[in-house]
Amino acid sequence: MFLRSNFEKISLWVVRIGLWLIPILPLYISSSMLFPFITGKNFAFRIIVEIVFAFWAGLAVLKSAYRPRLTPLFKAASIFIMIVFLADIFSLNPWRAFFANYERMEGFMMLFHLYLYFIILISVFKSRQDWLVFFLVTLGTSLAVSFVALLQKFGFRVSLQGGFRVDSTIGNPTYLASYLVFHVWLLMLLLRDFWEKWWLRFIFLGVLIFELLIIYFTATRGAVLALLGISLPFLAAVFWFWPRIFPKALVWRKFILFFSVILILVPLTFWLLRDQDFIKKNKVLVRLTHYSLQERTIQSRFKIWGMAYQGVLERPILGWGQENFYLIFQKYFHPGLYAQEPWFDRSHNVFFDWLVHAGFIGLISYISILVTALWALLSGMKQKVISLWQGIVMVSLFITHFLQNMFVFDSLNSYLLFFAFLAYTQHLRASSLAFFDASKDTNLKITDSYYLKAYGTTFALLLFLVIAGYFLHWKPIRQSRALSRALSVAQSKSSMDQITGAFEKALSYNSFGNTEVREQMANFARSVPGSDRFNPDEQKKFIAFTASGLRKEIDQPAKDIKHMLFLAAVLNRAQSLDANYGPEVEKILQEAIQLSPTKQIIYFELAQLYLSQNRVDQAMGTLYKAWSLDKTYVDAGLNLWLIGLAAKKLDIVEEVKQVVRIKDIVNEDGLYRLGTLYQQQGDLPTTLEIVARLVEIVPEKAEYHFAYGSLLAYFGQKEEALPHLEEALRLQPEFPEAKKVLEQLKPK
Question: Among 136, 176, 648, 737, which has the highest number of CB atoms less than 10 A from its own CB?
Fold first, then answer.
């Protein structure tokens, strides 16, 4: 009797509560872990899904009503998952394809859990109450997320990335915008259901305006353009079908027309007035109104897409596997990306991302999900299973998401909503009832043996998940926390033994986070040689410890040149401790060049090695290769200029000077060194030009004003010299040299 009366009820409530908890995850920040806006959310999501899955499986064994219907949308999603699985299995780095890293927490592990999430949603959420609670929890969470963003905007909370863009609990302005875009359409969806109550109508409209404002504060152009692009067709459709959607509220139809005009005029006005002062003083408006194909970020997108295209041609069928874009990035690196992020792991385009991840088969299967969802909505509208309002809103939602992903990519926060709305689409299409109405289950006579099987299934899965969770969740969670503590220890005044012990503790968990631990060790190790904190023996010991770990990384078949550079940089700086590191560094960097022949940073590191060994000609040859890859790279030219000038290679210097202008250099240290060299060689006119540039880019340094004023005085330009000498004294009142020169210049 107990089996009969309690299993289904308890299991169903566990599943429902778990599913209602998942939309709250965007609020979760795991401060004790590395990448606190990412890792905690992902681990929590996976654990909740697995628990829910165990109880759902028992329900599915018990009754067919809890099993997913074999609809076209379910089939499309299942085929997509299977194709991605094959692509990841046959990738060059399957381990990475499955588990990714702490910074992303994606790969097949995340995608498979999202698929399970989708299955459970379509199998269990069949009633008005289920979806209503789910959507209200989702909306409430988005309100809390938006409120945190508002606090950031007004300075009560600091954003992770700093600057003027808000990122809330999501940790990234672009991800935040992508997350909130879904809620714009969710609010529109719910608005119709609660339209008859005027006070709820205005609450929903108020929340809609508020979240649109937060999207604006993110200054995410992809999201804004996607919303604007789909809003006009959406409003046109609503205006046309308004009498059928809201037959008792025809007065609002005029408001739709008015709002459409405003939607056109306001962005157009801002665009036309983009050069006005009130626009230029608003950083958000500047970012949203100033578009150019020549803009650095847009140009970088074109370059990355070109690299992705080359990679796709090499592996067109099943692609490279998830999280393996680094192989394309290093092999087909475009030298023009020198000023961008050093390590891209996405193409920033949904087409190219899935072409890279899973080839043409994977892309087709991904698009088939979208096409199937749209077909389900449109056919449902035609058959009047889905209302006009539901259909128009849901179609707009999917198209908006797809359009913005032409320039960005998904994270867990947006993936949760994407798969949830896919599930809701199936719910709408599968039911002939009105919005939120419950479907009727068939009463079945089930014996105790069925209940025993259901209990056994749930218990067995929970036991298996506990064991698997030890390796998949517990160990990497502990490792992430241990690594976070190790970094805190490294930044404190702790001894080298304590620091080494902390990193060893992190590595002892031996999960997919090992790579991240070694990367962080490398970052710290580069500051160890020559440090006053540690004696030479301690330095040597930690360098050897770090190098040993990095060698394990670069011994992998699918080598990541980032790890090769990490190891080379650590050993290069450790030559003061052991000169025998030099040959290994050279070997590593030469191999890295073979893997990534157009990545300038490799040449810089190799040139540094040659200079440390007094192999000036080889250093210059290496720097010349780096500069020749893209002569617009000012810092590359500056490095070559400095070495050429010091080595008196005047032919090289003159060639560089024809391309690299002093007025274009923003590297303070490089300019200072260049000015010192010209001063030592007695070329004071050039020294004057360089010091003038230093004053321009670093006006707060007294010594630059003094040097500039002194040189101007030397060339007889006393009137021009006086303001700079006075500024030097203002910035540094105790500056005896400046006082002396100023007294000499002032008339007696």
Answer: 176
> Measuring CA to CA, which residue among 132, 254, 110, 268 is closest to residue 193?
132
Nearest alpha carbon to residue 525 among 560, 60, 534: 534
Residue 471 DSSP symbol: I
Show the tokens assigned to 249: 């509220």
Rg over alpha carbons for the chain, rounded to the nearest Å, is: 31
Report helix, strand or coil for 356.
helix
User: Domain residue spans in the chain?
Assistant: 68-430
Q: Which of 688, 655, 694, 692 is closest to 671 using CA atoms?
A: 694
* 459, amino acid identity: F
* SS3 sequence of 414-444: HHHHHHHHHHHHHHHHHCCCCCCCCCCCCCC
Q: Which of 186, 185, 181, 177 is nearest to 149 (CA)?
A: 177
Q: Token pair of 131, please?
A: 């979806």
Q: Judge contact between 75 and 375, C-beta under 8 A.
A: no
Q: Is 739 left (phi over 0), alpha (psi -120 to 50) or beta?
A: alpha
What is the DSSP code string of 156-191? SS--TT-SS---TTTT-HHHHHHHHHHHHHHHHHHH
Q: Is the pLDDT of residue 540 over 80?
A: yes
Out of 277-286, 423-432, 439-448, least confident range: 439-448
- Contact present, 499 and 490 (Cβ < 8 Å): yes
Predicted model pTM = 0.90
Note whether 378 and 395 are within 8 A (CB).
Answer: yes
Pairwise CA distance, residues 264 & 231, whole Å: 10
Select from 651, 649, 653 the least CA-distant residue to 638.
653
Look at residue 5 in the predicted model and tell me its pLDDT. 58
CB 422 within 8 A of CB 375: no
Q: What is the DSSP string of 301-339?
A: HHHHHHHHHHHHHHSTTT-S-TT-HHHHHHHS--GGGTT
Amino acid at 216: Y
- Give the DSSP per-residue string, 255-283: HHHHHHHHHHHHHHHHHHTTTSHHHHT-H
Tokens standing for residue 445 = 């006579």
What is residue 387's three-state secondary structure?
A: coil
Pair 726, 702: CB distance under 8 Å: no
Asked if 493 and 476 count as a contact pair (C-beta separation under 8 A), the reply is no
290 Cβ neighbours under 8 A, 6+ residues apart: 274
List, in order, residues 6 or more apart from 364 with CB less than 8 Å away: none
The region, left, alpha or beta by phi > 0 then psi within -120 to 50, assigned to residue 650 is alpha
Residue 10: partners with Cβ closer than 8 Å, 6 or more residues away: none
Write down the residue that tokens 């299991």 correspond to: 11
Mean pLDDT of 16-28: 96
Confidence of residue 399 (pLDDT cuts 50, 70, 90): very high
